[in-house]
Amino acid sequence: MRTVGVEEELILVDPDTGEPRAVSGAVLALTPGSGLEQELQLEQLEVATRPSSAMSELSGEIKRWRAEAARRAAKVGAVPVALATSPLPVHPSLTSSKRYRWMREEFALTAQEQLTCGCHIHVSVESDEEGVGVLDRIRPWLAPLMALSGNSPFWQGRDTGYSSYRSRVWGRWPSAGPVEIFGSAERYRQQVRAMLDTGALLDEGMIYFDARLSRHYPTVEVRVADVCLEAEDTVLLAMLVRALVETAADEWRAGQPPDPAGIGLLRLALWRAGRSGLDAHLVQPLLWTPAPAQTVLRSLLDHAREALDEAGDLESAEGHLAELLERGSGARRQREVFKRTGALRAVVKDCATRTVAQS
Fold it and tell me: How far is Cα 100 from Cα 283, in angstroms, rounded to an integer?
């Protein structure tokens, strides 16, 4: 059974006003070596689970770390919230480190405005060759993952019209987005070296592909999703990613070629996923034509059905996907709260409650 680990980025906010607070340094100073991590902006905090093979264990880890982040943030008068962008206007405060200062100087406004929170899913692979075989074959299915995780409809106090506006902001980084077919681990490494040789990137950590080989672990790291508002949506995302990795690895071993879609087509599918989320049409993988979001998400589940069944996750994935399609993602909930209250502050407070509601 492949193991799965999850990294979630959270925004730290004032519990009364809902405004982001630049206090991650203070949180980490209180509990050094605690397992929480600093991010690009001081208004952010990252939590990470241990690798797990059982989804029930992973679910418990996600909820435990959300609760732990809340407990520690409370000591400095803040609340962590699983939002992929801040609904309220914010001027982020860059974390003071040599790395992040270099990024601020090199990328200017792109770095200064980059207060976005994603969810990264790590799935174990047996080798870099298998990992690249997986990367080549999961490319068509990354856009639906973005759609089901959409949790960033607001930006600087305005409704953007997008389900995942984080994806638009994140796409400003020159190394972010979909990738070509590599064909081998050596060609993957050659591409990474060529990108670094341009001098435009500081190091390999800035290879921001939607899915990549992890630098530190024997895993494929899928990075396309918004951080999910509901912890159980993160678990569904992890189930689907693991099943997609297993399915792709089987196809690679069998010599089945990857879909030849070019980067331009993948970008259009990703744009549509970020724009529409679960509330309108998406682009159907492999056919590359419009289809209702429910049709596309169920196609994803069908594509990975055998792997889900072998892992014992099929019934749970089917049930949770049906629930998610019925109630909508975090973006829909945020808009519903705003429509009811007319206050973005109320949106943040509601989402702060939901972040740790199941802990």
Answer: 36
CA–CA distances in Å: residue 149 to residues 82, 120, 152, 166, 184: 11, 12, 9, 11, 30
Q: Which two tokens stand for residue 38?
A: 């600093």
* Count of Cβ atoms closer than 10 Å to residue 157 Cβ: 11
Number of helices and strands in the chain (H, E): 15, 10
Rounded to an integer, the average pLDDT of 32-38 is 79
Q: Domain 88-342, what fold?
A: Creatine Kinase; Chain A, domain 2 (3.30.590)
Nearest Cα to Cα of residue 69 among 120, 117, 12, 114: 12
Domain ranges in the chain?
88-342
Report the C-alpha gap between 25 and 15 in whole angstroms: 18
> In this structure, what token pair is assigned to residue 196?
């670094």
Q: What is the pLDDT of residue 35?
A: 76
Q: Residue 41's CB: how many other CB atoms inside 10 A?
A: 26
Question: Taking CA 136 as the corner, what is the angle to CA 248 and CA 110, rounded to the nearest 5 degrees?
Answer: 125
Q: Looking at residue 161, what is its pLDDT?
A: 98
What is the average pLDDT value for the chain, to the nearest integer? Answer: 96
Alpha-carbon gap, residue 327 to 348, rounded angstroms: 19
Q: Please compute, for residue 99, the number of CA atoms within 13 A of its CA located in the half-sphere on the CB side.
A: 11
- Across-strand partners of 4? 52, 123
Amino acid at 315: E
Ramachandran assignment for 77, one of left (phi > 0), alpha (psi -120 to 50 degrees), beta (any other): left
Contacts of 194 (CB under 8 A, 6+ apart): none
Cα–Cα distance, 159 to 61 (Å, whole number): 33
Give the model confidence (pLDDT) of 307-344 as tens digits. 999 999 999 999 999 999 999 999 999 999 999 999 99
- Which structure tokens are listed for 84? 């992929």
